[in-house]
């Protein structure tokens, strides 16, 4: 699948770098390569969603809501 190839290409650019190394990468001429790989990933992801009939915006909203409910502690109402 082309999407996994593009993700691997991005991973190759970021592999073995700590946060500072990634910051340096994004300040270098290679930042354009990172942006290009991210764009490729976005294109293939959108194409996959279209092929599968997935509304990505809705799926993202639903996933964020599910993660909030799962991982954020409930706030009890004041008495």
Q: What's the gist of this structure?
A:
This protein has about 80 residues and is mainly alpha-helical.
* Strand fraction: under 5%
The end-to-end span amounts to: 55 Å
User: What structural category do the secondary elements indicate?
Assistant: mainly alpha
Shape: flat
What's the helix-strand series?
Answer: HHHH
User: What oligomeric assembly is this protein in?
Assistant: single chain
Task: Describe the protein in words.
With 79 residues, the chain is mainly α. The chain is 75% helix and 0% strand. It has 4 helices and no strands. Helix 1 packs antiparallel against helix 3. The protein is flat, with a radius of gyration of 18 Å. The chain starts with a helix and ends in an 8-residue tail after the last helix. The model has no long low-confidence stretch (mean pLDDT 92).
């Amino acid at each position: 699948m082309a999407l996994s190839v593009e993700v691997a290409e991005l991973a190759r650019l970021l592999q073995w770098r700590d946060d500072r190394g990634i910051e340096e990468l994004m300040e270098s001429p290679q930042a354009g390569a990172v942006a290009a790989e991210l764009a490729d990933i976005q294109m293939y992801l959108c194409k996959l969603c279209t092929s599968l009939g997935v509304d990505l915006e809705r799926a993202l909203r639903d996933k964020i809501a599910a993660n909030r409910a799962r991982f954020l502690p409930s706030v009890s109402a004041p008495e």
